[in-house]
Structure formats: C-alpha cells, structure tokens
Design brief:
The chain has five helices and seven strands, in the order αβββαβαβαββα. With about 170 residues, it is an alpha/beta fold. A seven-stranded mixed β-sheet has the order 2-1-5-4-3-6-7. It starts with a helix and ends with a helix.
C-alpha cells in the first residue's frame, strides 16, 4: 500500500515537472532591463546576447540558498567547455546596487550581477521564490530551474539546451 502511494506521489511530481517544462518552453518575449553594478543599463535582448543562451538566476541578498548556489554558478561560469555557448546573469530585483555589490563580495560571485525592476522580473519570469534560474534563448524561456542546485544539475540543464541548439543549427 505504501509503495503504491509513493508511486502515485512520484507520478504527480513528474507530471508537475513536465508541466513546468512545457509551460517554460512555450513562453516568449523575455526582455528585462538590467542595471549593472557601475550603474549602466543593458537589456536581455541587446545584440551582445543574440543567439547566446542566457542562464538567468534570480536571487536575493538575504537568501541562504542563493548564497549556497554561488559556488555552483561560479563553476558553471568558468567551465571552458560550455562557456562559449552561454552567459550567466545574476539578477536581484529586490535590493539596491550597494547591497548587490556586498553580496558579490561576500559570496565571491565571479559572474555578473545586476539589479532589475521587481515588477519586470515578476511579470516576465513569473518568479515566485529564490533562487530560480532560467535558460533563455533570444527571449524564449527554454527551461526553469527552481531552488538551489549543484553544479552538475545546472550543467546538465545547460547541456540539454546546448544540444537543442546544435540540433536546430544542423536542421537549417
């Protein structure tokens, strides 16, 4: 009896994961205005990001899980085998530039961190908690990753997105 209940729970969880992936893969038009730590503005649809995967992670300064994930994101950012395919962008839509700079220094984050308008982030990414990461290509959300994850889990998600791009390129 307990085994059947556990199996049903697994099926429900898997169905929920597939629904999230389906919804994420059918979302479009992500274009968020970002403020750099030196107070310049860029947008996620700027030419520098065209045809590159964006690994966008939404975090908060006071989120313990966000702080724990920094080491995984640093490894991902510095991985030479996959780095040519993507850009890591850390976005804090809730805090000041000074607070974000303190987060960068205290955690040792090596990837770029940005401030964004919380209304834009919530409206376009539907972020409900932190950390939440998105793999985006040309404004289209390919994958959503909820919570803090290891380097290998994040790398696997990126590898799958890169494989999709390689297949699409070969079909043209």
């Amino acid at each position: 009896m307990a085994v059947q209940a556990l199996s049903r729970t697994k099926v429900v969880c898997l169905a929920a994961v597939f629904l999230v992936i389906f919804l994420a893969k059918n979302s479009y038009a992500v274009n968020i205005r970002l403020r750099t730590l030196d107070n310049q503005f860029i947008q996620t649809n700027d030419p520098q990001f065209k045809n590159r995967l964006l690994f966008v992670t939404v975090f908060q300064n006071d989120c313990d899980y966000c702080r724990m994930e920094v080491s995984s994101l640093n490894k991902l950012y510095e991985d030479p085998h996959i780095h040519k395919w993507f850009v890591v962008l850390g976005i804090d839509p809730y805090n000041s530039l000074q607070t974000i700079a303190q987060f960068k220094q205290s955690t040792g984050a090596v990837y770029p961190l940005f401030q964004a308008n919380s209304t834009d982030v919530l409206a376009q990414l539907h972020t409900q908690g932190t950390p939440t990461s998105y793999i985006v290509l040309n404004g289209k959300i390919l994958t959503v990753i909820y919570g803090e994850h290891s380097y290998l889990t994040l790398k696997h998600a990126l590898d799958e997105a890169i494989d999709e791009i390689k297949i699409a390129i070969n079909q043209k």
